[in-house]
Amino acid sequence: MEIIYSNDAKKYLARQGKKIALRIHGAIQKYAENPAEFPDVRRMEGYSDGRLRIRTGDYRIIIRHDTDGTLKILLVIEINNRGQIYKHLKRKRK
Prior knowledge:
This protein has helices at 7-15, 18-33, 85-93, and strands spanning 2-5, 41-43, 52-56, 59-68, 71-81.
């Protein structure tokens, strides 16, 4: 599965320390390898594009699956801590 990071996700990871960035990358990679066995993934309400929320510690990763022929693509839309992620997404929708 190919993983594509949005510009917002890349910027957030660049601002984090190495330990946090590795933890987030690890969670994304683990989900990409076997989505069925990832413990805490939920569909986000209010979005028609099939967004999912991955929880890893105090961080939330917003993703979406796309298919391009036989290639599966995992788009990482947004990454932030749990207190800010939903506020940030709400501002972007307006």
